[in-house]
UniProtKB/TrEMBL annotation:
Pfam families: ROK. This is ROK family protein. PANTHER family: GLUCOKINASE, ROK (REPRESSOR, ORF, KINASE) FAMILY. Belongs to the ROK (NagC/XylR) family.
């Protein structure tokens, strides 16, 4: 990673911090090579970051003769961020350090249809408990990352259009957090934040990724050319209400008929099992049954993957991603779900688009939404411009 600056003086402290945070500048020599800064200029910027508590310098052992190199690393304990992943029936909360490591986590089971005035105060109280549990204080909070199912309005911090959580559209959520912190609050779609976490983690080698969150509802996070794609109104990846022949005439929770979700989303599978007289409350129950060997649960999950694959085949042709990542509750029965998905994707997409396509489970499993929400806010508060403004 080399800066595009032509003037040595123009390389800021924040840009040097970005090199250290991403691992592209772990020594002063590496930073000098990446930026063309003089040794004195590098030292000045590193000192500023050390004085702010953001960077630590550690002596690294070396097998080669001579003086060991001094390694520069992010000080992950220089603050925390709060992660909030709101779902239809469960909300996950976490406290994470500046490296995105989860220090404390919990889940809130909630009544379907609960509104923000009822959920958010309880959510804030639990975040305060988590801060105490992690041994951190509210003044150490540098930001809050939040995710919701459906389309989000990042500017207002509210749900824009989400059939999964009715009653939330248009209601700004940051004001609810002000009793605990005045730090920045960011909100985005749940699949978007998960794919951000995948990019930040071990899969940063993939510049083109398509992440599918298959849970109560369906959604996708799209990374193309290394950048998250949100679309004009934040609706990129909202593929669950694409019309498919298999769902013709079947009512969807969005109020329309014929949507993919009506035959493939978790809520639809639970509905189908209940119609057979089975006692299931959530898609997680369905997954547990499938793992235990229940034939009907296994069929429903495989058929869900097959229906979703019919729609994704077109997306694979359009985007030609390196990898198709599977996240969400149905990923708990990954092999069953992907068997159906693979059948449809490879049967309907072009040979060129699927030739090197990898289908993989999400890196963070059940913590994907918390890790993703943390990544969303960390990438904001630790970006070069934010560091420069703070210093």
């Amino acid at each position: 990673m080399r800066t595009s600056r032509t003037s040595r003086a123009a390389v800021t402290v924040g840009e040097v911090f970005a090199l250290i945070r991403t691992g592209h500048g772990t020594t002063r020599t590496q930073i000098g090579r990446a930026t063309d800064l003089s040794r004195t200029a590098v030292a000045a910027r590193v000192t500023a970051l050390q004085d702010a508590g953001l960077v630590l310098e550690r002596t690294e052992s070396s097998s080669s003769p001579g003086r060991p190199a001094a390694g520069l690393v992010l000080n992950a304990d220089a603050g925390v961020v709060l992660a909030v992943a709101i779902g239809r029936s469960r909300t996950q909360l976490g406290v994470c350090n500046l490296a995105g490591d989860v220090l404390a986590i919990c889940s809130l089971e909630q009544e379907i249809g609960i509104g923000p005035d009822d959920l958010m105060p309880d959510l804030v109280a639990r975040l305060e408990d988590l801060l105490r549990e992690s041994g951190r204080r509210p003044e150490e909070v540098r930001g809050v990352g939040m995710s919701i199912p459906g389309t989000a309005d990042p500017q207002r911090g509210c749900s824009l259009d989400s059939p999964a959580i009715s009653g939330w559209d248009g209601i700004p959520l940051p004001p609810y957090l002000r009793s605990i912190t005045a730090a920045p609050v960011l909100l985005d779609n749940d699949a978007n934040v998960i794919v951000l976490a995948e990019r930040r983690g071990q899969r940063d080698r993939f510049d083109d990724m398509l992440l599918i969150k298959a849970s109560t509802g369906l959604g996708a996070g799209i990374v193309a050319g290394g950048a998250l794609q949100r679309g004009k109104r934040g609706g990129a990846g909202e593929f669950g209400h694409t019309k498919i022949p298999s769902a013709a005439g079947i009512s969807c929770r969005c109020g329309d008929t014929g949507c993919l979700e009506a035959v493939a989303a978790g809520w639809a599978l639970v509905r189908d099992l209940r119609d057979q007289g089975r006692e299931v409350a959530h898609v997680r129950d369905l997954v547990d049954l499938a793992i235990a060997g229940d034939a009907e649960a296994r069929r429903l999950i495989r058929d869900s993957g097959r229906h979703i694959g019919e729609v994704l085949a077109g997306a694979v042709n359009l985007l030609n991603p390196d990898a198709l990542i599977i996240a969400g509750d149905m990923a708990g029965a990954y092999d069953l779900f992907v068997a159906g998905l693979r059948e449809s994707v490879y049967g309907n997409a072009t040979t060129l688009a699927t030739r090197e396509l990898q289908i993989l489970p999400s890196t963070h499993g059940e913590m994907s939404s918390v890790k993703g929400s943390a990544t969303l806010i960390l990438d904001h508060v630790l970006r070069a411009e934010a560091i420069d403004a703070a210093l």
